[in-house]
TrEMBL record:
It comes from Purpureocillium lilacinum. It comes from the Eukaryota. This is Uncharacterized protein. The lineage of its organism: Eukaryota, Fungi, Dikarya, Ascomycota, Pezizomycotina.
Length: 220
């Protein structure tokens, strides 16, 4: 993405009605103290009540509590995992395995040496149903808690500037405005779990999850 495109994506006006209705709810759980080793992802959409979310405020505590209760009952049940992310010892690549496809690799995340500041690359296998091209997640600057990427020529922006360990994903619409399509929150006192809500009519779930993992590994 060019510097001009990055700056334009950052400064676009947010939709006058900055809310969205998620179609998917995911719980991301790490087996370690961060999000760069082994991750398990639960799709808890059928276990919770979905309602509109606002990009101007964090995910409601009531929804987060509902998701975490459902996750506590299933997170140790391997058959309930929708996705699993693994990274070999001394490897800089995280493999994104899709349980619905027999554990096939749906994407690979290339983790940079300076994972807090450099570009993360999400690679997809040939013929992938999730993306026809690789995706690069780039920081807007080292001073801003914002990340950009492009999917099918459409710019997206992860904004983590609202405070706490949370963020909102915006999609550029008609090259004129940004609308929210996803949101995440991770507990301040418990780094290794995260709730992600997504409108998957606006962005593929694997792309959203992969880029979310990248921004979770930033110093947010």
């Amino acid at each position: 993405m060019s510097a001009t495109m990055t700056e334009k994506t950052q400064t676009l006006a947010v939709d006058e009605q900055p809310s969205f209705t998620p179609t998917k709810v995911f719980f991301i759980n790490s087996s370690s103290g961060d999000f760069s080793d082994e991750l398990h992802v639960l799709d808890l959409t059928s276990n919770v009540t979905l309602s509109p979310c606002s990009s101007t405020s964090p995910i409601p505590d009531s929804l987060r509590d509902e998701v975490e209760r459902a996750a506590s009952e299933q997170k140790n049940d391997r058959s309930a995992w929708s996705f699993e992310l693994t990274r070999g010892t001394f490897s800089s690549t995280m493999e994104f395995h899709d349980a619905s496809a027999g554990g096939a690799v749906a994407a690979e995340l290339d983790m940079p040496v300076l994972k807090h500041y450099s570009v993360w690359k999400v690679r997809f296998p040939e013929g992938s149903p999730h993306s026809s091209h690789d995706v690069e997640v780039r920081p807007v600057s080292i001073w801003k808690k914002q990340e950009t990427f492009v999917k099918d020529s459409v710019p997206y922006l992860w904004d983590m500037s609202m405070g706490g360990k949370g963020g909102v994903l915006y999609k550029t619409v008609e090259f004129e405005k940004r609308v929210p399509v996803a949101q995440f929150v991770a507990k301040n006192w418990f780094k290794n779990c995260c709730v992600l809500v997504l409108d998957d009519r606006q962005l593929d779930a694997v792309v959203a999850l992969s880029t979310c993992v990248a921004v979770l590994n930033r110093d947010i």
